[in-house]
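User:
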Amino acid sequence: MVVSKRSVWLIGSGMAFMTVGVLMNAMWPQIFHAKIQHMMVLKNGSTSFDIWKALPIPIYMECFLFNITNVDDILAGKNVTIEVKEMGPYVFREINRKVDITWNDNGTVTFRNQRFWYFQPERSSGSLSDNITTINPIVATIAYTVRNDRMMLKFLVDMVLRVYHTNMFATANASAWLFDGVRDPILEFVGKIPSLPYTIPFDRFGWFYKRNGSIDADGLFNINTGSTDFRKLGQMERWQNSNSSVFREQCGLIQGSAGELWNLQKDQQEITIFAADLCTHITLPFSGKVVKHGIEGVEYSANDSLFDNGYKYPNQACYCDEVRDRNCMPAGSFNVSACKYGAPAFVSLPHMLGMGPYYPSKIKGLNPIPKHNFRMSIEPVTGMPLAISAQLQANALVRHIPGISLNNQLPDPDTLLPMFWFREDIEVDGEYVDFAKAALGVRFGLPYGLYAFIIIGIALIVSGVYKIRRFAMPQMKETDNDVSKKFLSDHAR
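Assistant: Predicted structure:
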């Protein structure tokens, strides 16, 4: 009887192990994703909150400036091609944090970005004291602003410009072009004119002038926390208290991720990112699978739909006016003048990568390569960004304008001049990698433990059956012998 009880216990335990293993293995995907959802929903105390509030990953911004090397030939009136030389990179360590955080009852959070940049000379090629010569953006902006006004006004503007400048070029060091700002007496003069119909928001010009430490430069964001609908985690709801921007129709809709939080769907073919500097969103299609620090991810990279104005992708025609004129640029360059106080600012990929030959052929010194593309890698299970290579170039459109002689000094009457480009390279490391690996380890490791439960259960059942069999066989033989003896004895009588 002792052996029999032990066998029953083994079989019962084995069945329990198997049941737990099978049920947990079937339910584990739902349990794991519920756990991930609990970690990633944006709220005070969640795992994602600390990462989102102050990204614990080193961020470096590389800045490149284009120096025009043949200004003398241009001013001499020679029919030459503009030659530029790329200067830099000037590298800055970026600290990014969220401030003025307000939690809303509708499952969204409102906040502002505050960013600080610190120059890293050991990572840079060149010094912030390097002198850079390019067109004067103030002259180009004023000329572009009055291009459609009456000729008398243009003559007057040209006279004022010539009081302060002899030509349309400006030379300043890299520090001034980037953060300190370039002084221009025209800005001081214009600032004294009352009731001016044009907005002049700065007293100097610099690509990041007054942005270092500012909480207003990027605007006011409102994103979905994922608490009411996890599929919307990190998605933009409003920007600057509005659900639309300066562009018309769907091009002006505030949509896409703010860039830090993602909930990718299975086999998602594209992602959308809202770019505050462009006042719109950009779309990156799926480009393949990648591995970063041993973590498998999916990569999304820009294709020819980026900065298309409806030439190849009709749904993007709303980036131009309804009446398409010469202000609607060829594919590959994006008009952000409405987003930049009316300045003739046009964005492209670095070195005009992917743009048609019309404008790039007018500039010597450009060298577009695949590395200049915009790309992002994401771990699809946790939604954690693994690597980001965000890079854009600012260009100035300079067209000859009748009456504005100071603006008409470039040899070609229709030039898109490269001014500056930047790259933000972010790749996870350290604690961020360890966290991602730990989360994925639980996802893939626990099912093996559950399989072990099933195997142990089968082993216990087999052991129990074997013991029963060992216990039962001698009993059966003894019973058979007794029956045989009785049978023979009965027949002997």
